[in-house]
Amino acid sequence: MVDKIISRSEQIADQPYSGRKVPEYDSDDVRELIEKPYRIIYRIKPDQIDVVAVIHGAQQLRGNI
Fold first, then answer.
1. Run of H or E including 3
2. Which of 8, 26, 38, 59 is the most exposed place for a label (fewest CB within 10 A)?
């Protein structure tokens, strides 16, 4: 599973806007990719991309990103 998440995360570097907007935040710069059953949540910044959370899809997303 770790290899699948890492592989999926590499997509972020190549195509940062390929993930959908995170519904809980409704912001263009906070996006997610799904690697079932996990959500890879990341924030796009002008000079970098930060993976801010990898959570199980059944978990609630809490706090500020």
1. helix 2-14
2. 26
